[in-house]
């Protein structure tokens, strides 16, 4: 069963990938609820001030960053409540990685181990850090003795608790970058060097997406693989596949 979900809302320049987990169909439900909730709030708060801030405002973040952070928090609350109220959804959760682009400004938010990469003339850069045992406890190093069984365990996801930690960052874009949002079905099997080579191998982003998925399969990926590519064209007239 495919428990990955994604949103490519080009009118909002919002892009989201979620990788669900949980028994029965619960992971699929959690991922679907996450992308739907995030898109709904970003759409509802687009070009209007007629909305509330249930989690307050972070003065160190831009308006768009606060919007995206709120959207992810709302998704977490909705998934957590569903899990508490329905036995079939017990312990369901999901990762989420989001990119919101406005006037050449990138806002990224993530929870879990789905990743956002940025490719430019300097190579491929991983913008997000996984909420995993390996990244958080081991500092990204290879598993040491006794820890290999848990190094991929996630330390932070959407839906597991009433509140979650949403990682948010902002940066300016030049309009020539390519963004890659993906689930761990890709980055968990394909080495960074190979990803870097592939990201510069094709001008056509649909072809590039297929090459990335093929590489994951060739490297033995046994997980769902979701690849979402967004490329600027001078003024960030975004395209997503």
Features:
five-stranded antiparallel beta sheet; alpha+beta; globular; 6 helices; 30% helix; six-stranded antiparallel beta sheet; 241 residues
Descriptive account of the structure:
Helix 1 runs antiparallel to helix 2 (63-85). The chain has helices at residues 26-44, 63-85, 133-136, 184-187, 192-199, 205-218; strands at residues 4-9, 14-21, 93-94, 96-102, 105-111, 115-120, 123-126, 167-172, 178-182, 227-231, 239-240. Strand 10 (227-231) and strand 11 (239-240) form a beta hairpin. It has 241 residues and is an alpha+beta fold. The protein has 6 helices and 11 strands. The two termini are 21 Å apart. It is globular, with a radius of gyration of 17 Å. The strands form 2 sheets. Strands 1, 2, 3, 4, 5 and 8 form a 6-stranded antiparallel β-sheet that branches. A 5-stranded antiparallel β-sheet has the order 7-6-9-10-11. The longest helix has 23 residues, at 63-85.
Quick one: overall form? globular
Task: Point out poorly predicted stretches.
Answer: 142-148
- Count the beta strands: 11
Distance between the termini: 21 Å
What oligomeric state is this?
A: single chain
Main β-sheet, in a few words? 6 strands, antiparallel
Radius of gyration: 17 Å
Beta strand %: 15-25%
Helix content: 25-40%
Return the structural class. Answer: alpha+beta
Mean pLDDT: 90
From N to C, what is the helix and strand string? EEHHEEEEEHEEHHHEE
**How many helices does DSSP assign?**
6
Short description:
By secondary structure, the chain is α+β, with helices and mostly antiparallel strands. The chain contains six helices and eleven strands.
